[in-house]
Amino acid sequence: MYEVIWHGRGGQGVVIAAQILAESAYLQGFKGVTSAPTFGPERRGAPLTASTRISDHPIRTFAQIEKADIAVVLDWSLFGVVDILGSLKPKGLLLINTPQKAEEVEIEGSWNIATLDAAAVAIRFHLLKEGAPMVNTPMLGVFAKASGLVSLEHLEKGLKWKLSGGAAATNIAALRAAYEEASLKNRDRAPIVSGNNRGSVPIFIR
Predict the structure, then answer these.
(1) 190 to 25, 106, 186, 204: CA distances (angstroms)
(2) pLDDT less than 50: residues of the chain
(3) Do residues 141 and 122 lie in contact, with contact meaning Cβ atoms separated by under 8 Å?
(4) Model confidence pLDDT, tens digit, residues 159-198
(5) CATH superfamily of 2-185
């Protein structure tokens, strides 16, 4: 089972991203998927956490995730507010919305890192809510490229499940751009190649 924690702020679409990932994984053929908000009610601007579990087998665990395989950070400033690294397994995969390339990120510890200026991608594709960039869809693109767990094709299907018409098309375009532009740094130097029902990208965890 792979466990994913999403770190963001209220209004950034953290919970929706967790739901789309779970639905996409189900469409890809995973037997067990769950998603849930982790802490408290969503308030705009307040720190918010959501989780996704993905498994080849039915999931019978519904407790909060203590140590995730993958952490997705939608807002860089949360590193000064939330113990993000404390919720991630050693050598886990850390996906960050930041203008920095993965090789430029200075975070103490042995982490596999992927980055994207998700805000810039969201602005380019006019993914805005009350003037603020919605970075959840671009970060799903980073997830597809860096983890290899869920393919870009099935994330597109997940977006169509949640959205329709022009909104789906715009978000899919942003997803594809994010996939191409994401920057990766694998500190383990020993990636696990994805299985038969995964994408063709290495999984940088375990």
Answers:
(1) 24, 21, 8, 8
(2) 189-206
(3) no
(4) 999 999 999 999 999 999 999 999 998 765 433 333 334 4
(5) Pyruvate-ferredoxin oxidoreductase, PFOR, domain III (3.40.920.10)
